[in-house]
Amino acid sequence: MELGLCPLPALGRTGCLGCPAANAGRSGSDRRLATYDRQHQRSRPCFGSGRKRGACANALGRSRGGFTSKIHARCDNQGLPVGFILTGGEASDYTAAEPLMAIPVATPKALLADKGYDGDRFRESLLTRGILPIIPPRSNRKVPEHPDYRRYKDRNRVERMFGKLKQQRRIATRYDKTLLSFESFLNLAATRLWLKSFVNAA
């Protein structure tokens, strides 16, 4: 202490060890004041502070399957994709409901969707547009609204569409960092499904 060196304290709440080199040689009161200013002004952050940016913007999130994306698709009555919305792996399906309906395609007479898209606001929005919601109720609904389950069986076309898309390894396992790159390969895979219908029609 005679040389003006400060001892190494225990790890505090700030996550920083010791005192800055600029505080060496100062008195105890000056040292405390300088440390107080350093902690609140944050001229540079301590190592490990803050969060990694870019994951949300690129539709990446942590889920049971790992750090990945969730693909929400809108299809026609034959199960062919007409548009996609990508969210993080932890995002709820319901958050993509309105963006999917905003895709500029022909308005359908009915909409078949998974129970993840069940919600009073979304149902009312569909009915005001003249679209019949065929969505099974969530398990926590107090008053469940059961749809026409015979018509709901046609939703297996959507599941088969996802199965065909994920035959492409680059779609089943996301290797692309950016959202634009992954969406581009997803659209290419969807184009292959559409080409088959045009070839058969010819």
Can you put this structure into words, describing what you see?
The chain is α+β, with helices and mostly antiparallel strands and 202 residues long. 34% of the residues lie in helices and 13% in strands. It contains seven helices and five strands, in the order αβββαβαβαααα. A three-stranded antiparallel sheet has the order 1-2-3. A two-stranded parallel ribbon has the order 4-5. The longest helix has 23 residues, at 179-201.
Poorly predicted runs: 13-19, 29-52
Shape, please?
Answer: globular
Helix content: 25-40%
Number of helices: 7
Q: Largest beta sheet, briefly?
A: 3 strands, antiparallel
Please tell me the overall pLDDT: 77
Name the descriptors:
202 residues, 3-stranded antiparallel β-sheet, alpha+beta
Can you summarize this structure?
The chain is of the alpha+beta class and about 200 residues long.
Q: What does the secondary structure layout of this molecule look like, with pairings?
A:
Layout: H1 28-41, E1 61-63, E2 66-75, E3 81-88, H2 97-101, E4 110-112, H3 120-128, E5 132-134, H4 149-152, H5 156-165, H6 169-172, H7 179-201
Parallel strand pairs: 4-5
Antiparallel strand pairs: 1-2, 2-3
